[in-house]
Amino acid sequence: MDAIVLLKDDHKTVEELFKKFENAGERAYKEKQRIVEQIIHELTTHAYIEEEIFYPAARAAVPETEDHVLESVEEHHVVVWMLSELRKLEPEDERYDAKVTVLIENVRHHVEEEEQEWFPKVRESLGRNRLRELGEQMEKAKAEAPADPLAVSSARQ
Ligand SMILES: [Fe+2]
Ligand SMILES: [Fe+2]
């Protein structure tokens, strides 16, 4: 699969989970916790494959978007720390919805920048064959992604 198509599919999956969370009842604690567990899994895996495979490849291929990649890693840093906090927070906690809401805002902003400003340039520079190669690598790497958000490399940067 094409790397950018794969990443956009992930973004869609996460956006659907965000909508589910937003539509869940205020007191639907169990449901909200289940959704958040899925969000943690999806975003940790996604950040991992981007950081291990896609970001370095794109940075090398399109040096003029290097600043974008560096900002993206900083944004991942914030997201994975928020994910790790959410893992420990009870859904009944008064900060739970607030933390998820800010997480969602951060990720939506991040995804929009990736998709609108960055992916088109990367697609042009990398070309179809290289993107397919990276897509295959990322599909395989998903199986090796850590469960712990803080095991993703941006957590330590
Ligand atoms: Fe990203
Ligand atoms: Fe992404």
UniProtKB/TrEMBL annotation:
Annotated spans, Disordered: 133-157
Q: In which residue ranges is the amino acid composition biased (Basic and acidic residues)?
A: 133-145
Q: Tell me which InterPro entries the record gives.
A: Hemerythrin-like (IPR012312)
User: Which residue range or ranges hold the Hemerythrin-like domain?
Assistant: 3-122
Per its record, how is this protein called by name? Hemerythrin superfamily protein
Organism of derivation: Sphaerisporangium siamense
The beginning of the lineage is: Bacteria, Bacillati, Actinomycetota, Actinomycetes, Streptosporangiales
